[in-house]
Amino acid sequence: MTGLSTHVLDATSGTPAVGMSVILQDAAGGELASGVTDADGRIAQVSTQPLVPGIYHLVFETGEWFSDNDIEAFYPEVDICFTVDDADRHYHVPVLLSPFAYSTYRGS
């Protein structure tokens, strides 16, 4: 399977971040795809197309999500910049989120 998926967890509540908008951009900031996290905080296929090798941005609209959930927070968005080096593999970019911190890693 190729493409890109993501998973966002709210570290403060220990629950999925449901309803968060996520945008996939190319290196120049052009929008390639978008989606909204489901009841499990996931977007199974942000992009169903293989990503050609290069640099991409996965932008999480955290400010809007925090506001919708009445949470005071520091980050209006989280922009994860990553490199695709193999068009034949699937990429997974998870985010662990709190109002004043976040972490991410290359998932599987």
From TrEMBL:
> Biological process GO terms, please?
purine nucleobase metabolic process
Residue ranges constituting the Transthyretin/hydroxyisourate hydrolase domain according to the UniProt record: 1-107
Chain segments annotated as transmembrane: none
Q: Which reaction does it catalyse?
A: 5-hydroxyisourate + H2O = 5-hydroxy-2-oxo-4-ureido-2,5-dihydro-1H-imidazole-5-carboxylate + H(+)
Checking SUPFAM superfamilies in the record gives:
Transthyretin (synonym: prealbumin)
The protein's Enzyme Commission number: 3.5.2.17
Q: Which UniProt keywords apply?
A: Hydrolase, Purine metabolism
Return the InterPro entries for the record.
Hydroxyisourate_hydrolase, Thyroxine_BS, Transthyretin/HIU_hydrolase, Transthyretin/HIU_hydrolase_d, Transthyretin/HIU_hydrolase_sf
Residues holding substrate: H7, R42, Y105
Superkingdom per UniProt: Bacteria
Q: Per its UniProt record, what NCBIfam families does this chain match?
A: hdxy_isourate
Could you tell me what this protein does? Catalyzes the hydrolysis of 5-hydroxyisourate (HIU) to 2-oxo-4-hydroxy-4-carboxy-5-ureidoimidazoline (OHCU).
Q: How does it assemble?
A: Homotetramer.
PANTHER family given for it? 5-HYDROXYISOURATE HYDROLASE, URICASE AND TRANSTHYRETIN-RELATED
Homology family = Belongs to the transthyretin family. 5-hydroxyisourate hydrolase subfamily.
Protein name as annotated: 5-hydroxyisourate hydrolase
Name of the gene this protein is made from: uraH
